[in-house]
Amino acid sequence: MNLPNKLSLTRMALIPLMVALMYPNNTFFNLLSAAVFGAAAFTDYLDGHIARKEGIVTDFGKFIDPVADKLLVLSAMVMLVNQGLMPAWIVVLILARELCVDGLRMVASGKGMVIAAGKLGKIKTVTQIILVLWLMILRLPVAGNFFSAVLALVVVAMTLWSGAEYFINNLHIIRNAK
Fold it and tell me: Exposed, middle or buried, 16 (CB in 10 Å: 0-12/13-18/19+)?
């Protein structure tokens, strides 16, 4: 197994630690969980950078990298909902988008095609990571803080825009599905 794929698996392995550190919900553990989340999120950049630079992009990597990203971000967001820092509807919207895009990818895969992550999808992930870190570190709830609310709206907009882009760019797959 190559290094980028190991980094993606490491990202997934850090999720239970991050979640466990969020449960006490006190300053020390909140900052520690944010550090674990930040380190895990950094592996997303690192694995993609290494894979492209070294020319070791694999089918397993194309699968595991976005799965690891989604699990990391959604796990943190669910915990932030639990702590009253993020409204649940945002997480539901993000989850719905991810399931729809994954469904599209499954249909494409059945036709022998791979839908790679687009630029907007990558920007969407970065905005989600920024929002999660903001909420984890500063503890300013989306409902009660102007900047948190604006950042959350940017995440919602990027989530919807990037999801729409996947479907618009791949209408031919949907039209030809049996």
Answer: exposed
Per-residue burial over 121-140, b = 16 or more CB atoms within 10 Å of its CB, e = otherwise:
bbebbebbbebbbbbbeebb
Q: Is the pLDDT of residue 98 over 90?
A: yes
In this predicted structure, what is the pLDDT of residue 60?
A: 85
CB 87 within 8 Å of CB 81: yes
CA gap 83, 117 in Å, rounded: 31
Instruction: State how far the Cα of 94 lies from the Cα of 160, in Å rounded to an integer.
Output: 8
d(C-alpha 95, C-alpha 11), whole Å: 19
148 Cβ contact partners less than 8 Å away, ≥ 6 residues apart: 131, 134, 135, 138, 140, 141, 142
Q: Which fold has domain 3-175?
A: Four Helix Bundle (Hemerythrin (Met), subunit A) (1.20.120)
Summarised one tens digit per residue, pLDDT across range 120-174 is 988 999 999 999 999 999 999 999 899 999 999 999 999 999 999 999 988 888 8
Amino acid type, 124: K
- Half-sphere exposure for 36 (CA within 13 Å, toward CB): 22
Q: Would you say the pTM of this structure is higher than 0.70?
A: yes
Give the separation between CA 8 and CA 156, rounded to whole angstroms. 25
